[in-house]
Amino acid sequence: MNKFFAYIFVTISIVGFCFYKNSFIDFDKIAEESELKGRTFNNKPTEFITPAGIKVWLLEDRSVDLISVSFSFNRAGTAYDDEDKKGVSLITAQMLDGGTKDYDYKAYHDLLDINGIYIGFGTDNDYFNGFMTSPTINIHSNETNISTSNNKKLAFDILKKVLYEPRLDESFLKTLQKQFEVLVKTQKENPKTELSLQFTKELFKNHPYSRTIDDMAKDVASLEVSDIKNFITDSFVKDNLIISVAGNISKDELIDYIDEVFGSLEQTNGRVQLNKPDIDYSSEPVIIQRDTAQVISSFALEGVKRTDSNFYPLYIANHIFGGSGLTSRISVASREKEGLTYGIYTYLDAEELAPLIIGGFSCVPENYEKVKKILKKQMKKFASKGVTKKELLNAKKYLLASYNLRFKSTLELSKMLTQMQKYKLGLDFLQKRNNYVENVTLAEVNKAAAQYYNKQPKEVVIGTIK
Predict the structure, then answer these.
(1) How far, CA to CA in Å, does 208 sit from each of 276, 316, 336?
(2) Calpha distance 160→153 (Å, rounded)
(3) Which of 86, 398, 431, 465 has its CB surrounded by the most CB atoms within 10 Å?
(4) What would the pLDDT profile of 243-294 be if each residue is shown by its tens digit?
(5) What is the pTM for the complete model shown?
(6) If we measure between CA atoms, which residue out of 410, 37, 379, 106 comes closest to residue 245?
(7) Crossing angle of helices 170-186/225-235, nearest 10°?
């Protein structure tokens, strides 16, 4: 996904799922030709605790003159916003992009641009996330009163000022509130957006995961700067902080930077982990009648958590069934052979509280029932007969070769280290991941196919249903 909530106009990402997967990309060719496919991680990340009591994962890479930091505050996402302050986490992420006490919006972004530094914030259901990337080469800035001998120090100094001395300009807040108001008013002009919002509501009902920008609109409009300040104080605390660093920096050097930036945070925010949402998969499809050229469907099946023993068997099974673009079972059956759909897919969302298999397709209205029939038939066949040895071999080949494509930058690598911490995958995950894929047996994949695809999916549809 792109920078999560880097700008207010992608707010919709938080309340729905990735609606469209590009099925026209030749993923196999990209994986085969990429130089990254052969990348190996010979060293595990180093885990250490700073004098201020902050746990850090560091993966040193001396081959690049860059450093990237990924950090997340748990129990600080949109699902944890107070009932009368819904959307405060999202707006806070935007407000932190507005500068610092010493720098207004333009001066702040000019400073970052001149020095090649990126600092960004975003939010999802559970986490408030931050990212920083900087060159490590020495840069002396004559246009800042921040004392610096190198870019690393400058980057951490700026990050500290953003976290502890954000500008929080009232006029900037008003601008963001107006942008949010426009977004709420225009969201239903796009059928995909309307479907995404309704899909989220139907899945999670009264659980905080069901919150959409519609639900946040009234509270966002009444937010004051003091609410942003209170959110920062309550949410940016040590006991829910995850930090990962990748790039050209040593442990000894990093310790001082981490404690300088994060060491003064409060210890705890006292928020309790949410309960799992109770999802009713058995209910009838929800149909949003709308005069559109296409019918668009989103559907969900029960999935597995990232640490579940069934994760890799289901991961491979899903790749074969709906995750491999044009070559997937459902794409071949409905698009390549019959020409009934513009695109059809499934993917895993392996979140801790609500693991799901998410799918979707689009087609002209007269083909909707035909595509549904094919999808149902393919799911039944997949569950009863499973996959072939050749399909398993091809899936493994792709999943093994393509894995390193996600590590095209130090920022992506630091984000991955943070995900490893969130999902408790272990320090040796980068070394073991391909073994996990390689060791999955045909019997395990077919067992997962039988267990998870032999069910009626939860579906929400928008369009003219005939």
Answers:
(1) 10, 31, 40
(2) 11
(3) 86
(4) 999 999 999 999 999 999 999 999 888 899 999 999 999 888 999 999 999 9
(5) 0.88
(6) 410
(7) 90
